[in-house]
Design brief:
The complex is a heterodimer of chains A (211) and B (270). With 211 residues, chain A is α+β, with helices and mostly antiparallel strands. Chain A has 8 helices and 10 strands. Chain B folds into 2 domains: 80 residues, no CATH class; 143 residues, no CATH class. In chain B, 54% of the residues lie in helices and 10% in strands. The chains are: A alpha+beta (211), B alpha+beta (270).
C-alpha cells in the first residue's frame, strides 16, 4: 500500500520524519514563513521573527527543521559582526511521501530469520485461552514496579493467539518465527501481524529473542 | 520398574482423618447421648458413605465401588441390629447376617488391595516425569501442543469411558473436545464432590475432535515434584504418555496401560 500524504521533492520518508515535518507545516505561521522565504532572496531568523511577530526561537526552530529536510538551505554570514545564518528557499514544491509497505511493514520484518524466539523465563504473563481452547484470546502482563504496577491486557487476533499457543516454552529450544508459523500451520500472509505482537512482547519482556 | 520417585511423598491425612473424625463423633455422642443414639449416628455416617460410593459408581461406572457400598450398607445395618443395638432381630438371622457382613468386609478389602479403587493420577505424574531432567525457572502457565492424531469421536469417547472406569482420572466433554484430568487419591473428593470444581487450573490433557492434543500442567502439580523439572520436557512427556495410552487403547491393548501404571508401584492410599 502506498499512501501519499503531501509532497516534498526527493523524499521518501519514514513515519517519524513525516510526523515531525507535518507538525511544523500545520502551524498557523508556516504559510507566512514560506511566503517570506519566497519573497526574499534570503532572510535571517531574527528578520523573519520580527516580520511575522513570532518569537526568535520559534523562527529558528522552524527554519532549522526546514533546513534539516532540505526545503530551505542556510548560509553562514559574518558581515562585521558575529556569524549568523541566512535562510533561502531551496524548492518550489513540498512533498511528503510515506511508503507504508516499506517504512512500516519492513520494520516488522526485521530479519525474522536472523533471530529465534521463545517465552522468557518468569515472564509473569498470563495467557488466556479462547473459548474453543485451541489458541489464546488475550495476554495479561504486569508492567511497572511497586505501587505503579498495573495490568496490561492485549487482545490477540486468532492468528496471533495460535502463534503464541505454539511459542516454545522458556526451557525449550528457540525457533524462528517462520518455523513456528509452519509448525502452527498458520498462513504466512499473517506474518506481519505476528511480527507486530512478537516485537511488542519482546519489548514487554514476555518473549526472549535469541540471536 | 526400578524408578527413583520424582514426586514428593504423599503426606495428605485426609484419608486417615475420616475414620478418626467418625470415631470421635461416635465417642462424643456416646458420652453425651448414650449408646443407642451414638449407634444411630454412626450408622448414619455409614449411610452417607454409602451414598458417596453410589455417587462415585454413577460418575465413573466402576462396579468395584459397589463392594465398599455393600460393606457400608451392611455396616449401617449391623450397627443397628447387633445385640447391643437399638433394633432386635432373630439371633439365627443375625448369625446369617454376620456371615454376609464378614464376606462384605473381605470384598471391600479386596477392592482396596487389588488397587481396583485406586485413582492413578500419581502414577501418571510419576511416569511422565521419568527421564525428565532438572531445569529451574522453566514453568509457564500455558498449555503445550502435544501432537496430532487420527481419531474418531467414538474412539475418543470410548477412551474417555475406559479412562474413568479404571480411575486414571475424570473426563469432561466440551463441544469440540474431551478433557482428561489425572486424579490422585488425595484429590478425588475435591474433583468429584465439589460443585464449584473448575478443571481449567488443574493439570489436564485435551484431545479435540480434529485430533489435536495439548497438555497443561498446573503449578500446584508441578510443585509436587521434588525438583524443578524441565517444564517443556515434562509437558511433552505427559503428552507422549497420553498418546501412548490412546494408541494402546486403539489397538485393544488396554491391559498394557494398567501394566505401566502398576509398574510404578505406589501404595494404595497415595
Amino acid at each position: 500500500m502506498k499512501f501519499v500524504f503531501t509532497y516534498l521533492p526527493e523524499a521518501m520518508m519514514n513515519f517519524k520524519d513525516a510526523r515531525k515535518i507535518c507538525n511544523f507545516l500545520s502551524k498557523e505561521y508556516a504559510e507566512s514563513f514560506f511566503r517570506l522565504l519566497k519573497a526574499y532572496q534570503n532572510i535571517s531568523a531574527s528578520e523573519a521573527a520580527s516580520r511575522l511577530n513570532v518569537h526568535i526561537q520559534t523562527a529558528q526552530d522552524f527554519l532549522e527543521t526546514m533546513t534539516e529536510y532540505q526545503i530551505v538551505e542556510k548560509e553562514e554570514v559574518t558581515e562585521s559582526k558575529r556569524p549568523y545564518y541566512r535562510y533561502s528557499l531551496k524548492t518550489d514544491k513540498i512533498s511528503v511521501e510515506i511508503d507504508l509497505e516499506k517504512s512500516l511493514i519492513h520494520d516488522l520484518n526485521v530479519s525474522p530469520e536472523g533471530f529465534q524466539i521463545r517465552e522468557l523465563k518468569n515472564s509473569g504473563a498470563k495467557f488466556s485461552l479462547a473459548r474453543n481452547g485451541s489458541y489464546f484470546s488475550n495476554i495479561s502482563i504486569w508492567v511497572g514496579e511497586g505501587r505503579a504496577v498495573k495490568e496490561r491486557k492485549i487482545n490477540l487476533t486468532d492468528t496471533q493467539g495460535m502463534f503464541l499457543y505454539n511459542l516454545p516454552f522458556p526451557d525449550s529450544l528457540p525457533e524462528s518465527v517462520d518455523e513456528i508459523i509452519k509448525r502452527a500451520d498458520i498462513n504466512p500472509k499473517h506474518k506481519s501481524e505476528i511480527m507486530d505482537i512478537v516485537m511488542e512482547l519482546i519489548q514487554l519482556s514476555v518473549i526472549e529473542k535469541v540471536i | 520398574m526400578e524408578t527413583s520417585r520424582k514426586l514428593k511423598p504423599d503426606r495428605s491425612i485426609s484419608g486417615p482423618m475420616q475414620p478418626v473424625i467418625v470415631l470421635t463423633v461416635f465417642g462424643l455422642s456416646y458420652f453425651i447421648f448414650g449408646r443407642i443414639t451414638a449407634l444411630y449416628i454412626l450408622s448414619g455416617f455409614y449411610l452417607i458413605y454409602l451414598l458417596a460410593s453410589l455417587y462415585l459408581f454413577a460418575r465413573v461406572k466402576n462396579f468395584y465401588y459397589l463392594l465398599p457400598g455393600i460393606f457400608q450398607l451392611l455396616t449401617a445395618v449391623f450397627l443397628l441390629i447387633n445385640p447391643k443395638g437399638p433394633l432386635s432381630i432373630d439371633p439365627q438371622v443375625f448369625k446369617g447376617f454376620v456371615i454376609v457382613y464378614v464376606c462384605s468386609i473381605f470384598m471391600a478389602i479386596y477392592s482396596l488391595i487389588s488397587k481396583k479403587l485406586k485413582w492413578r493420577g500419581r502414577e501418571i505424574l510419576e511416569l511422565a516425569a521419568q527421564n525428565v531432567q532438572v531445569n529451574p525457572e522453566s514453568y509457564t502457565e500455558r498449555p503445550r501442543p502435544a501432537g496430532k492424531i487420527d481419531v474418531s469421536r467414538n474412539e475418543l469417547f470410548g477412551f474417555a469411558r475406559y479412562y474413568k472406569l479404571n480411575l486414571l482420572g475424570i473426563t469432561k466433554r466440551e463441544h469440540n473436545k474431551v478433557i482428561f484430568l489425572p486424579v490422585r487419591m488425595n484429590q478425588f473428593e475435591n474433583f468429584l464432590f465439589n460443585p464449584g470444581f473448575n478443571y481449567r487450573d488443574k493439570t489436564h490433557i485435551t484431545f479435540d475432535f480434529d485430533g489435536n492434543v495439548s497438555t497443561f500442567i498446573s503449578k500446584k502439580d508441578y510443585l509436587e515434584y521434588k525438583e524443578d523439572l524441565s517444564f517443556d520436557h515434562l509437558s511433552k512427556s505427559l503428552g507422549d504418555l497420553y498418546l501412548d495410552f490412546f494408541h494402546l487403547y486403539q489397538k485393544g491393548e488396554e491391559v498394557r496401560i494398567m501394566d505401566q501404571l502398576n509398574e510404578v508401584r505406589i501404595h494404595i492410599f497415595a
